Amino acid sequence: MPTQIPDTPLGGTMSLGTQGGSYNFIMIGGPEETVAVIDVSHLGTTNFREKMSGDLKDVGVIPVRIQYVGIDGLPNIAAAAETITLTWPNNDSTAASYAGTGFLLRRKFADMDIGSVDDVMVGEFDLVFNGGFNSGTEPAFTVAT
After folding, report:
1. For residue 29, which of 125, 110, 123 has the smallest C-alpha distance?
2. How many CB atoms lie within 10 A of CB 28?
3. Domain that holds residue 48
4. Has residue 1 been placed in a domain?
5. 43 lies in some domain
6. Which of 11, 62, 69, 132 is most deeply buried (CB count within 10 A of its CB)?
7. 59 or 78: which carries more pLDDT confidence?
8. 41 belongs to a structural domain
9. Structural domain tally of the chain?
10. Does some domain include residue 4?
11. CATH number of the domain encompassing residue 134
């Protein structure tokens, strides 16, 4: 088995299937899958609450930070759901990716602050996968090969 070398984040990307756009990414949040915790305690329960896991996964919100270039703006938050693809840096033949249908939940334009004149302006937006709603595609992770 070949020796695995940890990757750096340089080269990671995010793409929007319909809106497109070209951005200089500063940070792309990694998807975090969770399930609900259901309290099944009852009046006969003693000492500790009893719990079970829910059946459905939730990916949650994925924050993205970019170098803000005013002429390019930010993606449209009123756009219809589209394919969102997160791609990790590629040290393999095919890069690892996480893709599914989703939409933009929030966008924040760059602050104009005299205290940051020696830095680039930063824009932000948040993505959310819709879990396959309305004939969309459930999010799925594809391992690098």
Report:
1. 125
2. 20
3. 13-142
4. no
5. yes
6. 62
7. 59
8. yes
9. 1
10. no
11. 2.40.30
CA dihedral 11, 12, 17, 21 (to 10 degrees): -60
Collapsed DSSP state (helix, strand, coil) of residue 135: helix
Report pLDDT for 1.
Answer: 43
CB–CB of 53/37 below 8 Å? yes
Evaluated on CA atoms 18, 19, 25, 28, the torsion sign reads negative
In 6-135, where do the E strands start and end?
Answer: 13-16, 25-28, 34-39, 51-58, 61-67, 82-87, 97-108, 122-129
Q: Are 96 and 143 in contact (CB under 8 A)?
A: yes
pLDDT confidence of residue 4: 57
CB-based burial, 90-106: b 16+ in 10 Å, e otherwise: eeeeebbbbbbbbbbee
pTM of the full predicted structure? 0.84
Distance between CA 75 and CA 81 in Å, rounded?
12
Element holding 141 (H helix, E strand): strand 140-142
By three-state DSSP, how is residue 102 classified? Answer: strand
The string of pLDDT tens digits covering residues 73-111 is 789 998 899 999 999 887 667 889 999 999 999 999 988
